[in-house]
Amino acid sequence: MVVVFVLGLCVSALMERRAEVASIFNNRKNVIKGIEARNELFKDDFPREYQTWTETAKTDFESEFNGNIAVVALENRPEMVILWAGYAFSKDYSTPRGHMHAIEDITASLRTGAPVNPTDGPQPSTCWTCKSPDVPRMMEALGVDSFYNNKWGAMGAEIVNPIGCSDCHDPETMNLHISRPALIEAFQRQGKDITKATPQEMRSLVCAQCHVEYFFKGDGKYLTFPWDKGFTVEDMEAYYDEAGFYDYIHKLSRTPILCAITFTNANAKRTKFVTAWNRNWRKRISKLNLLGIMERQKLK
Ligand code: HEC
Ligand code: HEC
């Protein structure tokens, strides 16, 4: 009796939820077609999701595995400055914060310098790729190659909305979608069609557009995922070795170094891709730390 009653409650809650979703979609005030980067335009139609999205702005807890506060990592671990000597991360590295801070944080970082015109500055435009729903808009306007093949300063006036709805959703149907070419291309090179991904896979894949190991290929700084040989650190290392790629040449040891630990954050490990990386990072970090210790001994 009780079981039947509880089941009945569940079914009716589900039906109500479906009706609610249908009525939300039928009564949308802002019917959006094409690419829409402005997060505010989703607020009236999806107030609850919008509200949870704004919560990514919170900076109220610190933890062993990165809270949501930007902790200046180089201050806490000064050895990283030596470890990263010759790499932009030695200038400035803070732990990640929530998505709403993406534009603010990349702009404030010393790694992007202070470009004074569109052809100035240390970084390419590729650095914007994981920061904003304005990126697909600009890629459509300029072409993907030309988007990457620019200085970071060139896109500053256009890229203003922090990571938001259209990065993960098709704005018209609100289905999950892949907005970044690098992930689609990595799948294609493996002979896989990302449009065949299941809804469950899509829940991870939307995150894997950004929370992955990547590199900027060639002079055009084309954003590329090193997945052609597989997903393990060894596979990616083999890929990089074959491509002759390294992230930087260490200033003291003159060793070419791959740095696969950039853009990690322990909080994001609920996604499959990032979890795989966290496991592998540990290996990589230990190798790097070893190098750090060696460097410190040399310095003494
Ligand atoms: C368009 C690129 C992009 C996508 C898509 C994306 N992220 Fe992020 N994420 C970032 C960037 C960039 C940061 C760091 C922002 C900063 O520090 O200002 C970040 C930060 C985070 C943080 C905060 C870390 C902390 O320590 O508080 C979490 C958690 C996170 N992402 C999880 C996810 C999950 C889960 C998904 C998929 C549902 C996802 N992200 C999809 C780019 C992205
Ligand atoms: C980082 C990726 C990401 C961002 C940014 C994001 N969402 Fe989502 N959203 C998801 C995922 C993943 C789901 C779960 C989809 C599923 O259950 O298959 C979801 C679910 C939803 C749903 C369906 C809810 C339901 O219960 O059926 C709506 C509506 C939605 N999001 C609206 C928004 C709005 C509005 C924004 C911007 C303010 C936004 N989302 C930003 C990833 C994202």
Folded structure, characterized:
By secondary structure, this protein is mainly alpha-helical. The protein has 12 helices and 4 strands. The strands form 2 sheets. Strands 1-2 form a two-stranded antiparallel sheet. The chain has a two-stranded antiparallel ribbon with strand order 3-4. Strand 3 and strand 4 form a beta hairpin. It is globular, with a radius of gyration of 22 Å. The structure holds heme C (2 copies). The site of one heme C (HEC) has 18 residues, from helix 2, helix 8 and helix 10. One heme C (HEC) is lined by residues 66, 68, 95-99, 101-102, 105, 130-131, 163, 167-168, 206-207, 209-211, 265, 267-268, 270-271.
